[in-house]
Specification:
Blueprint (H helix, E strand, L loop, with lengths): L12 E4 L3 E5 L5 E5 L7 E10 H14 L5 E4 L5 E15 L2 E10 L3
Antiparallel strand pairs: 1-4, 2-3, 4-7, 5-6, 6-7
């Protein structure tokens, strides 16, 4: 499996949305139950600002996966995981410098 090795330029935000079934009762009572064994997938919003040639390499890596193929990614201070990138945005920052903002979503295969 391919590994994404670049480090984000700026602090990344991590979002965790637990998967939960909720049953609502009268008078605002509710019961909650976790869905499945992998119910807290991680999602990272990352920003990379580099020389155009390095951004070309990151862009090519993400395009080669095409939101279909997963890849390994280890966020600093976290355990390795399997992720997909469904969307990224490339911006021309200055002459010879570009940036990519991307969202990595953890998947279980």
């Amino acid at each position: 499996m391919p590994t994404f090795t670049w480090r984000a330029t700026y602090d990344a935000s991590k979002t965790v949305t637990p998967k939960v079934d909720v049953i609502k009762f009268g008078d605002s009572y509710e019961q909650r139950q976790g869905k499945g064994i992998n119910r807290q997938p991680r999602k990272y919003s990352l920003m990379f600002k580099r020389l155009k040639t390095e951004i070309d390499a990151i862009d090519a890596f993400l395009a080669a996966r095409g939101s279909v193929e997963s890849f390994n990614y280890t966020h600093p201070g976290q355990s390795i995981g399997v992720f997909v990138c469904r969307e990224w945005t490339r911006t021309d920052v200055a002459r010879g410098v570009d940036s990519i903002s991307a969202t990595f979503e953890e998947v279980y295969e």
